[in-house]
Amino acid sequence: MPFISLTLIVVPAALRAWLIAVLLRRGLQRQFRVFFLYNAFGVTIAVLKLVALSIGYRTYFVVYWTTEIPYTLLELLAMLEVFPITFKTFSLLKVFQRTIWAVAAVMIGISLLQAILMPPQHVNRLLAWIYSLEIGVRYVQGGIFVLFVALVKFWQIEWRQYTLGIVLGFGVLVIGTLTPGMLRSEFGTNFTFAFKYVPAVAYIIAVFIWLVMFYRPQAPDPQQSRRAPLSPGEVANMIKRLAASIKESWR
What is the pLDDT, as a whole number, of residue 20? Predict the structure, then answer.
């Protein structure tokens, strides 16, 4: 196996193992459960790929494509996990939840159109649909990333170190995997180099961002002392009752 390809498997796996150790040391695996599981699964997949490579290319091919779907879905769930942590009270409102799922539905629709109108070239039908599913998840991640930043700006919510690191890392992943993927779907094997190496480099950058952000302790939340003694659920119920009262007054 080429040295570059082997490096692009071993380096992010080693960084992720370090990240997992940091998460365990700070007890953050409970707060970011899906994110922790996502990285643990990523290390496991890297080990399986190395074992498969020692057996042969066909085994590696099977391992790669059978793990790609659950790994990609875990990646999406890890990104969605940040929303209730960041937006707390607002995440309990139905309109907030509907906005997130509406963005996801639009992005999936765009990816389906791309799969129909511009299917991946030089692959069989099954791999074409798996690849299209992966591209669809990337579109969803891109839409969620834009929505996340827009909502933070709109509600003037202060960025927190850990959630900022997770969002920035996934933002890098979206750009690094979606751009060469779109080029490959459009132009076939003309962009094989970019399709092969750019996503792997993006993963290394993303994991490095996560490691840096989680390695340092997060400063205490400056808003904590100024928060009302009500729980997020109680505040959400108050907002719902206020909205219902306003509707009644207009009837």
Answer: 97
CA distance 195 to 135: 12
Within 8 A by CB and 6+ apart from 88, the residues are 232
What are 113-137's pLDDT values in tens digits?
766 666 665 556 666 666 667 777 7
Backbone angles phi, psi at 229, to 5 degrees: -75, 10
pLDDT class for 237, splitting at 50, 70, 90? Answer: low
What is the residue type of 106?
Answer: V
Contacts of 1 (CB under 8 A, 6+ apart): 53
**Residue whose entry in the numeric block shows the structure tokens 């942590």:** 85
**How many Cα atoms occupy the beta-carbon half-sphere of 218 within 13 Å?**
19
Tokens of residue 128, six digits: 């074409």
Residue 160 has what pLDDT? 81
CA 154 to chain centre: 22
Confidence of residue 211 (pLDDT cuts 50, 70, 90): very high
The DSSP H or E segment spanning 243 is: helix 232-249
Closest CA to 172 of 132, 133, 131, 213: 213
Task: Copy the structure tokens of residue 242.
Answer: 């206020």
Burial class (CB in 10 A: 0-12, 13-18, 19+), 210: buried
Count the residues in the chain.
251
Q: Scanning the structure block, which residue is given the tokens 């840096």?
A: 212
